[in-house]
Amino acid sequence: MVWEILSRYGRVFLCGGLVCLVGQILINKTKMTSARILVTFLLAGVVLQAVGLFDAIKEFALAGVTIPIIGFGSTLAEGAIEGAKIGLFEACTYGLRAVAGGLTAAIVFGFVIALLFRSRSKTA
Amino acid sequence: MIDAKSYAEIVKEATPKTQEARTLFAAFGIGGVICMIGQAVFDVYAQFLNADEKTVSALTGMTMIFFGALLTGVGVYDKIGYYAGAGSIVPITGFANSIVSPAMEFHNEGIVFGLMARMFGVAGPIIVSGVCSSVAVGIIYYIVGVAA
Amino acid sequence: MRLGRQTYAPDKRAFVTHVADIAGSDEAMGNLRHYIDFAIDCGEWGCASHEKAESKFRDVVTKRLLDSSGSSSREIDCILGGDLINQIVPSSFSARNFDIPFCGLYCACATFGQSLAVASMMIAAGMDKIICCTSSHFATAERQYRYPLELGTQPTPTSQRTVTGAGAAMIESSGPDHRCPEIGAYTLGKIVDLGCVDANNMGAAMAPAAFDTIAAHLRETGRSANYYDMIVTGDLGALGRELLAELLRKEGVCDASNLNDCGCMVFAEGQKCGLGGSGAGCSSLVYCSYLHKLLVSGQLNRILLVPTGALLSKDSSLQGESIPGIAYAVAIECR
What we know:
The structure holds three protein chains of three kinds.
Chain A: H1 2-30, H2 34-50, H3 54-61, H4 63-66, H5 69-84, H6 88-98, H7 100-116
Helix pairs in contact in A: 2-5, 5-6
Chain B: H1 4-14, H2 20-48, H3 53-73, H4 77-84, H5 86-89, H6 92-105, H7 111-118, H8 124-147
Chain C: E1 7-8, E2 15-23, H1 25-28, H2 50-69, E3 78-82, H3 89-95, E4 102-104, H4 111-124, E5 129-136, H5 138-145, E6 161-162, E7 165-172, E8 182-187, H6 202-221, E9 230-233, H7 237-250, E10 259-261, H8 262-266, E11 277-278, H9 280-297, E12 302-306, E13 308-310, H10 314-318, E14 325-327, E15 329-333
Parallel strand pairs in C: 3-4, 3-5, 6-11, 9-10, 9-12
Antiparallel strand pairs in C: 1-8, 2-7, 5-7, 8-15, 12-15, 13-14
Helix pairs in contact in C: 2-3, 6-7
């Protein structure tokens, strides 16, 4: 039981760490800004899901790939693929429907937190 | 006066290099820990909520977004980011950070034209590229499905 | 009097009679901690926005300058200066609190040099008392040039930290009885752009401009670099200073042994400030808090102050433009 939990979380740590490591290599080598990094990883998630590789990776890596923004991209693509089985309209809209929770959370929490706090000048 | 090309060479020669080992180690470690926290949240929800995996997954994402937003609000996330680099950018908490930080920054310009209007100054490209690519995937799958 | 293509010697003596400065808490803990007059406790400083705080910096130094010189605002002919924010609002917003004519100037971080040069011209045109003031603020500059403050980004190895603070100098046509620095000559800068595009590497973008201005100054005045006790650039940072020294040596202008940089002087070793300080307030803070005192006390006799500016905007970077640099050289000396 303990061993199972350890290996489960160890896998999450390793895979999540590796994904971020790739991001850091990109930052160091190409001086990409954070928005570009996020877009790149999101699109990587969309592509991985579209070609059908994501589920196998997720099986092994668990939150190690769903918590990085790759997971957000895969959910978008997953929704779109599901919608495509129903019709063209659903093919176009089910992607956003699948991430509605995350987007709503980001917008609402973003709004509330920004109402409550202001930016502070940083000390060196 | 020196020409642009040979100056660029001198600059390249003299420019200090990124501390590869330190930044990579920090990104790996902190990124891994954030994912482990996400897994813990997932496991707790899966254990105690009577919900299917998709809902638990979505709730996990929303919870992590809340953590990212809150840590940004209290001024901790930028300090994590200083050390972690991609380790705190790539996880979904970094997405929350990229939405909350401009919203906070432009709060002074008013709620409508500051906070709300500028909220997507950093995250806008992420949402636009995500939605457009998902529509593209959907249409491709639809056409392939109809043809088959 | 014209000495050359870009260099002039003042027709009327222009004395730097009084100075005042204000600094952020990090700057006040840096290398100049024993010299800074007045430090603030936090970036907001009780104001509703960082821009308001920067405006208040200018109010405070201007008031202190009026007090220390015993002048009323009616005796001041003009306030000169600028900052880094769009439409230089902190400068004009501060100037509305004083009943003094105002000339806003902008040359990014070179504004202090530009102000001193213009002040010297104005003295020659018949004015008597002019205040030169430039300021910058880490938080307002981050928003102006980079990212929201709370965005978790990592600084690149070449980035510098914008100095929070302001410096103001009173330029007068008549000097006091005691030893007092004055403007000896000034060289107007040309825009020099060698194609640097990295907005996080301002030092490299500005070093060629500093080189061009220093070389022109020495050539047109016929002085050797050793004429000055110190040639001190504005905010090249450690990398820019190294590049400038290399350019000066390579082109045989001087051996760069007396070269220094305000950006390298501000912060202490161990403060997380990248390659040094930057900003319109960098050279004015360092001059007003430190260099001026050394000139008055006699530890320095002649310096060449060369504030450097990178004339980019966030949009110009996004449009793929390279970064034009500029530098003004002002000789400040005690006769």
